[in-house]
Amino acid sequence: MSSAAAEEKIETAPASSGGSGGGSSKLPLILTAVNTLVTLAMVAILFVSFQHEKKKPQLSDINPNAQAAAAGAQGEGAKDGKDAQKKSTADYGKMVTLEQFTVNLSTPGSVAPKFVRVNISLEVPTDDAEQEITSKMPQVRNVIIDLFNSKRPADLATAEGREYLKEEIKNAINGFMVSGKVNGVYFTNFALSG
Which domain holds residue 75? Predict the structure, then answer.
């Protein structure tokens, strides 16, 4: 029996070595399949990312005149680009920047004075209105100072209070303007003393 067991071991040994040889021939096939899957996954990721990039808003989506302005900058249709730029600036008007204001606020019953330091820009529709604002600068500054002097610190502590003051400034200046009206009042810097 021992010789029969030995013969079985000999017969099984070549069979097992043949099986492992077959497994090693499958390894390149498996690696090729994995490599192909990884490559396909990378292509899919790149495709999706390029599609996502196409869906991002472009400048032309936001501003329809951007293509005309870009064409004008490149020399193609330069006249159309300049016309588009003129039209967009005319829509917004001119900005007149005033010198900085440091103004005392109304503090009835308080010993400590409170003040505000503010930079203001005024939006006007035309060059004529801009020239009128410049020529009437003492009146403009006086109106603004008077309005700030009438406000308490609590009036200017909220966004609503500042918006109301902007409307008051606009209406007061428009009261003496002849060649145009102020379209907007903007605080470009605003500091309220504590």
Answer: 59-90
d(CA 194, CA 187): 19
As a whole number of angstroms, the distance between CA 58 and CA 148 comes to 43
Q: How many domains does the chain have?
A: 2
CA 74/CA 134 separation, integer angstroms = 37
Question: What does the alpha-carbon distance between residue 64 and residue 69 come to, in Å, rounded to a whole number?
Answer: 9
What whole-number percentage of the chain has pLDDT above 70? 66
- 187 assigned to some structural domain: yes
Residues 65 and 112 in one domain: no
Q: In angstroms, rounded to a whole number, what is the distance separating the alpha carbons of residues 161 and 93?
A: 25
Q: What radius of gyration, in Å, describes the C-alpha atoms of the chain?
A: 39
Helix ranges (H only) for 56-136 are: 59-62, 66-74, 78-92, 127-135
Q: Which two three-digit tokens encode residue 160?
A: 């609503």
User: How confident is the model over 115-148, as pLDDT tens digits?
Assistant: 899 999 999 999 999 999 999 999 999 999 999 9
Q: Are residues 173 and 104 in the same domain?
A: yes
| Calpha distance 24→37 (Å, rounded) | 21
Q: What is the CATH number of the domain that holds 131?
A: 3.30.479.30
